Amino acid sequence: MEVPGWLETLAERVARMQVPPLLRPPASGGRPAAVLLLFGEGPFGPDVLLIQRSSRGRTHAGQPAFPGGGVDPDDGGPVAAALREAEEETGLDPAGVHVVGTMPELYVSRSDNRVTPVLAWWHTPCVVHAASPDEVESVERVPIRELVDPANRLRLRHPGGHCGPAFRVRGLLVWGFTAGVLDGVLAGSGFALPWDHSRVEDLPPDVLNLASR
Asked: Whole-prediction pTM value?
């Protein structure tokens, strides 16, 4: 099975990345979790699978995200958890996926999750959809070329004053943890293009209200 060279290089780079202080896990506590960064070759070139979480959710409501969730005891680790969650949320067939590597554990304080991002290649794509409507509203294969387009990039200012990367693609406003991971992944893959970092907007009130639940 042939994995693109750029993805192999990316997996090597992110495996030894330095975790930013804001995402560094605490010495103890936190729930083990995993997300799947699934890359494939779509009609518009390389793409990545994203979901939009249900607006009825308890945490991260309405937010675009990578498929994923908590690591259950039966999973045996983050790789199996990421594949299981992706199957439950999108109908993904794990048999069509080749895991390339993992990133260091990242901490999401809002949900107290210690998240391991799992990088994978979608060698045999299948139809995906919102397979768990209570958790997922929609599923998108987002082309990398749209994510790196400078017109689709900005920074969002949170009420506390912190600014983080964001993307406007396919009708989605991708921000927070997911955007931060994507920002680093795009840089590590070599696909990133220069963009205007001075383009700063406030986090929209409706998005903030959902995120504050």
From this structure: 0.95
Among the listed residues 177, 168, 39, 191, the one whose alpha carbon sits nearest the alpha carbon of residue 109 = 177
Q: Contact at 8 Å (CB) between 82 and 35?
A: yes
Q: How far apart are CA 183 and CA 167, in angstroms?
A: 9
CA distances from 9 to 1, 18, 147 (A): 16, 16, 19
CA angle 177/204/148 to nearest 5° reads: 50
Q: How many domains does the chain have?
A: 1
What is the DSSP-derived secondary structure letter of residue 22?
A: G
pLDDT at residue 208, rounded to an integer: 80
Parallel, antiparallel or unpaired: strands 200-202 and 153-157: parallel
d(CA 110, CA 18): 21
Phi, psi of 132 (to 5 degrees): -125, 80
The two structure tokens encoding residue 119: 């990088």
- CATH number, domain of 95, equals 3.90.79.10
Instruction: State the 10-residue block means of pLDDT for the chain, 213 residues long.
Output: 93 93 91 97 97 76 92 96 98 98 94 96 97 92 98 94 94 95 95 97 87 68
Domain containing 19: what range?
Answer: 5-211
- Contacts of 198 by beta carbon, 8 Å cutoff, 6+ apart: none
